[in-house]
Write a structure and sequence with these properties.
Layout lengths: L15 E4 L2 E8 L3 H9 L1 H7 L2 E5 L6 E6 L2 E11 L3 E4 L3 E8 L2 E9 L7 H18 L4 H26 L8 E4 L9 H12 L1 H5 L3 E6 L6 H21 L7 E6 L12 H7 L1 E6 L2
Parallel strand pairs: 10-11
Antiparallel strand pairs: 1-2, 2-8, 3-4, 4-5, 5-6, 6-7, 7-8, 9-12, 10-12
């Protein structure tokens, strides 16, 4: 049998679109299936590598509940076959296969109702890296520093993959930038919104998802309010250009969180102060 990559080599393996609705990750481990399985059914371990898990009934039709940066995702387990298969709500599926000297994990994602997000897909790349390191018992601090660096590097990679495999080459994310501690749309931001509205697909069939992030000289609570005002202004502009309110969804409003680039310079902080709009391809 040909040797398969294990451990940190997993980091180099990008997710692959099997169709526009499905993304699959493959990860190989120098551990038996039961070792990996335990990380998939243990509520406490989910917090270490994926999200805060407040409920997990490890059985068929059992309930699960995750807190993802303040948003709740909950549902029931659709498939449960110990050490082989686990399906969470039809959206996330884990499959384990024994291999020589270890096992292979196939991690499958289905397109969420809010469409594909390059930020989220880069997150999955980093979260699976956390899983690799959790199983290898790597130091937590070292793992978190690594995951942050990987997330920043993978964001543009998944943006390109989405353009190639999902949007037919169309732009994936519109980023509007703001002055420090200001919520008003700049002329450039308004022009970008008008460009989004003018897309034939946006006019006819696509919804728009809005996320807000900040990097302002204020407290986190103040940044959340500021971010919300920026999101509200962007949504009002879309409605004013004819996009129905029910076709605009606000996803995350996170304030001074999730910088795209280093916060050590004024230019970097200006780039991080942004609203991101995604058509739901």
């Amino acid at each position: 049998m040909t040797a398969i990559p294990r451990g940190p080599d997993n980091d180099l393996m990008l997710g692959e679109f099997t169709d526009r609705e499905t993304l699959r990750f493959v990860r190989d481990f120098a551990h038996p299936p039961q070792t990996v399985w335990q990380t998939l059914v243990d509520k406490a371990q989910y917090k270490t590598w994926l999200w805060e898990c407040t409920r997990f009934e490890a059985r068929l039709d059992g309930q699960f509940r995750f807190d993802i940066s303040g948003q709740i995702w909950e549902g029931r387990i659709r498939e449960f076959e110990p050490e082989r298969r686990l399906d969470l709500g039809g959206h996330i599926r884990f499959e384990l296969f024994a291999s020589e000297g270890g096992c292979r994990l196939i991690f499958t994602l289905k397109r969420p109702p809010t469409g594909w997000s390059p930020m989220a897909l880069a997150g999955y790349q980093a979260w699976l890296g956390r899983l690799t390191r959790l199983i290898a018992k790597a130091p937590r601090e070292e793992t978190e520093a690594w995951a942050s660096d990987l997330w920043e590097g993978m964001f543009p990679v998944y943006e390109r993959l989405l353009r190639r495999h999902v949007s037919g080459g169309a732009k994936i994310v519109w980023r509007l930038h703001f002055d420090d501690n200001a919520a008003a749309l700049t002329a450039e931001s308004a022009a970008q919104l008008d460009e989004l509205v003018a897309m034939p697909e946006t006019r006819s069939e696509l919804n728009v998802v809005v996320d807000g992030f900040g990097d302002d000289s204020c407290s986190q609570d103040e940044s959340l309010k500021l971010c919300r005002s920026r999101v509200d202004n962007a949504c009002a502009h879309l409605r004013g250009r004819g996009i129905a309110a029910e076709r605009i969804a606000v996803s995350y409003v996170l304030g001074n969180y999730h910088p795209l680039v280093s916060r050590e310079t004024q230019a970097g902080r200006a780039f991080n102060r942004r609203i991101e709009l995604r058509p739901t391809y």
